[in-house]
Every structure is written in C-alpha cells, then in structure tokens.
Amino acid sequence: MHIEMNDLTRDKLKDSLGNRPGCFKLFIDTEDCGCNGVIVVLIVGGPNNTDITFQTEPFTFLVDPQQKPQFEEKLRLQAEENYPSFKLSSDSTLYSSNVRLRNMRA
C-alpha cells in the first residue's frame, strides 16, 4: 500500500505529531458507530505486534492485517484547508471525505 499526499496534507500531519515521536495508523473504527465503521487515522507511538508498516516516507503508516484488505494499494489522503479533516480516496473509491485524526499516544 502507498498513500499519496500533497504539501498541505504533509504539513497538517507534521503539525499533528508536534515535537513527539509517532506514526499514523489507518483504522476502521466500528466501536459504538452502529454502522460498517468510520475511517480514522490514529496517531500512535509505535506499531502493535501484528501491525503492518506499509509506508515510511514522509511518515510511517501502519495498518492492521485484518483491515488491510479493505483498502486499495494506492490511496490519496488530502487535507481540508479550513477544516480539521481529511479525504481518503483511491482511483476507484471515495472512502471518506471526513477522516479525522485521533491521537492515541499516552
């Protein structure tokens, strides 16, 4: 898998890390949503034992192996300029136009 991103997206992701180490995990959250799940990007301190690292530049991105089949190989993550969310898409699918970051670091 690979995530393409523009300069605005890179800047917003960098800002979200602050001065602390961390990486990003693509995650479909099904807890308490009453639906098929909501895509979020988790900010985590590092991978779980089973996580797959699928990209390391310009940021490290992870995915759970059970959720990996839900995503295409080439993805685009685009930040919204005046709103704290992102759009996740591929050549054939719009996964969500309201992807939020959730900081899970201690």
TrEMBL record:
Superkingdom per UniProt: Bacteria
A Pfam family of this chain: Fe-S_biosyn
Identification of the protein by name: Iron-sulfur cluster biosynthesis family protein
Residue ranges occupied by any Core domain in the UniProt entry: 1-102
Phylogenetic lineage: Bacteria, Bacillati, Bacillota, Bacilli, Bacillales
